[in-house]
Amino acid sequence: MRTIDLLIIGDYLSAEFSWQARVPQFEISNLSVTDATSTDILNTLPKLKELHPETDAIMLSIGANDLRSGNDDFLSTIRDICIKGNELFPTAEFLVTSIVPITFADFPPQRIAELNQQMATMARDIGAVSLDVYTPLKKAMENGQEIVEADGIHLTSNGYALWAKTMLEHIAFLIEEDE
User: Fold this and answer.
1) The overall pTM is greater than 0.85
2) Average pLDDT by consecutive 10-residue portion of the chain (179 residues)?
3) CA proximity to 58, closest of 96, 1, 98
4) Which of 32, 69, 99, 124 is 20 to 30 A off residue 131, Cα-Cα?
5) Are 3 and 40 in contact (CB under 8 A)?
6) Could you tell me the domains of the chain?
């Protein structure tokens, strides 16, 4: 099997994990930025194309910083990222990652689930793949696993391991379909 090139773009949640160590069968370039918002990602897409002219898959993990800054109206920007990303990387599989089950002061947890449903519908409507990591992480939390740190906004190593497993299953399936 050939090596799969995966480009990861996103915010602190994807920036703070060693994806290459967890998914060694892929060649991973993690260009996530800790304080990035969806607008930041949209504005940097042309530069990403210069840095990585070819890739097999792109995993977009954005939205947490938008929410932390009080902006829960960022889905249209994610849509624009996907459309522009598909134009710049027409052969790449584009995965839109759901927002993980984190908590913020004065932000209802149910709103994250609603945003994830809207994001999944949007991704399918434009031909991107919805990567639902929220559901397996939430189920693991309900089963007593420590998935989110005590601060409510960072994942534990267990949370990242489950995210990586879910991502790996999706990408392996997508790449297999293309071959």
Assistant:
1) yes
2) 85 93 90 96 94 92 90 90 94 93 83 94 94 96 95 94 90 61
3) 96
4) 69
5) no
6) 4-178 (3.40.50.1110)
